[in-house]
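Can't paste images in this forum, so I'm doing it all in text. The chain is below; anyone willing to post the predicted structure tokens underneath?
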Amino acid sequence: MNKIPDGPLTIAIVQLPAAYLDLKKSLELAESYVQKAKEKGAGLIVFGETWFCGYPAWIDHLPSIALWDYSPTKEVYAMMLQNSIDVQGTSGQKLANLARQYQIMMVAGINEVVESGYGNGTIFNSLLIYGEDGTLLNHHRKLMPTYTEKLLYGIGDGHGLKTIDSKIGRIGGLICWEHWMPLSRQALHMQNEHLHIAVWPAVKDLHQLASRHYAFEGRCYVIAAGQVLKVKDLPDVFPLPDHLKDQANQYLLNGGSAVIAPDGSYVLEPQFDTEELIFVTIEDWNKVLTERMTLDVSGHYYRPDVFEFNVNNRRK
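Text version of the structure:
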């Protein structure tokens, strides 16, 4: 149950932009990053929230996008649908092939579309974990789109609220504000997580707080993955408000990727305003166990005689 990794793990965090709303080019970029990560000895590569292919940061910066029947928003939504990943289709297979070809574990945040069946006109904000043989180990859909995200994304389910066994330990992941949901955190804490992937648009101050809290509460390492996006990357169908005009190189998402130890301390301090493939190595896995002496929210700090906890894991 408590078998931790028996050696160091090098992780690559992709704090580089995708080709916004261009799935073909984003997959090509992803392959170059995966190849470089493998050459540098990484055993795991992490692409942040909806990296494939682009977080819709415009929902937080363009006030007109929420107007009823607003043509530019509908046009961009159609572009999102056409450039999202069908996990069971050709685009999903291309992701699996990347992990298999380069023999690396991969975590990918995606805009997900289902080409047939439930949700075939809906976009899900999803997180995929692939094994180094290309096997899809977990497929999680964000439980609740955050605030303005509700304009674009469907509601997920509990099917992916699980950790998976691998040679680099037990791994799980949550998306963005799911880290503020106590029961989603507890669902993974109950499964003896060693390494947690926290994907965000950018890991700003409150997101750093949530990531550090998760590490401290869960007694696990946390990879907090942020993204970069500039004003010039926004779909040109949108008219820019005055404060963004002539600001092409201003960051709307400025990264902030970090790695946090089970005691809440930083292994890697937040990396803001930089575009790079970030490498970090976790050395001391024993901290996952030693820190549980004082706090174990699925063990001696759980009190099952007082609390009952159940998760509906059915795929909707």
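Residues 9-293 form a domain with the Nitrilase/N-carbamoyl-D-aminoacid amidohydrolase fold (CATH 3.60.110.10). DSSP finds six helices and 13 strands in the chain.
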